[in-house]
Amino acid sequence: MNHFPHDFEWGVATSAYQIEGAASADGRGPSIWDTFSHTPGKIIDGSNGDIACDHYHRYPEDVDIIASLGVKAYRFSVSWPRVQPLGYGAWNEKGFEFYSNLLDKLAEKNITPHLTLYHWDLPQALQDQGGWLNRDTTAHFANYAAEIARRFGNRVASIATHNEPWCTANLGFGNAQFAPGVADKALSIQVSHHLLLSHGLAIKAMRRVASSAKLGIVLNQWPAMPATDSARDVAEAEWEYARSVQWFMDPIFKGRYPQKALDRMDMSQFHTEAEDMNIIHQPIDFLGVNYYTREFISTDSPPKKPQAAMGVTDMGWEIYPLGLTDILLRHKNDYTNLPPIYITENGMAVADKLIDGEIDDQPRIAYVHAHLDAIHAAIEQGVNVKGYFYWSLLDNFEWNSGYAKRFGLVYVDYATQQRTLKASAHWYRNFVSQQLRKTE
Ligand code: PNW
Question: Do residues 43 and 18 lie in contact, with contact meaning Cβ atoms separated by under 8 Å?
Fold first, then answer.
């Protein structure tokens, strides 16, 4: 078995809207995902996050489960409309109380919290004023970030501004698969700029608070790989990589957008101001990388499909662990000022079945094992990876797939809210305990 560095952090991850439920409890305001999931036709199984895993009421049990896995780190997100129902103006003390109680419970179990500010649940009141298309939202976000840093900055190990701004921009706008569901590619570019700007403003605002939390951002990433060696496939893959990965990395670590992407994008609606790039180009303490699959680029019609030698997940995503080694090495090469990296998400949807009280999810075990090997290979080649968070602790509301897709190490029976550890949970506990034992 591969031996990871002694201070490597082992964890699991969740997000607020996907697990909390209690959508209107204790003064929580509606978010764009409440609106979206209650709009007929948007969610594949017609479900919503009103109850989800009822984590809002069951968090003590869920933290006990994390502790039972033997992992020492937990990544979760704060629901902005729970702590500030409109996204501006009054704070909701009951909302802060929930997260304070959660942090108490994690401390009691010696589990290190990693907090994400924005995992897609924008307060609906801000959406009513244009949401991420409105530049004012960036200032509201920075204000919210500073308040979280003031209250919780000394109780969490890290604060990430955004989770996967690529998804917000391209799936929320662009193809409209996610909330708020606006199908306009040109607008998605402006949204991505506002997300990056809000990241920079939030980092600046949180630095002024001076808490002990490390500050960073979480990006979903994949290498774009050409189907063949043809010049066309190779060029197309490079362009795809520029507009999806470098589009977020370059502004943060180089202070500019990648020219290769700018050349081919519809910039008709793109508005930036003089100081924006300096604000986005703030030093950060860590980079979170979420990795699930690679992108396979073919210019043939019909396009060539990958062979998927290791199969596909229940989402239809190709299993390609080497892509993770690949992108980590590419980052090391492309950016001289990279901070430590955390793999903040990696996981597999499996069509899990509860049989005689057990879930034998061998494909998930193979998936995690292969990706841990891929991370280890990158570490051996000099990439500074500091931790791994499996996505997700629990089966949960998988966005537009509703409850039809299961990513959890822990099975959730939504009718009873009963939690059952899958075979992968037992495997992960074993793996982590062997890693921790080696380092004692
Ligand atoms: C991530 N894509 O979403 C999110 O951070 C999680 O909330 C989510 O549950 C998890 O991955 C599994 O889907 C993604 O289409 C959604 O490329 C879509 C894509 C990537 C990530």
Answer: no
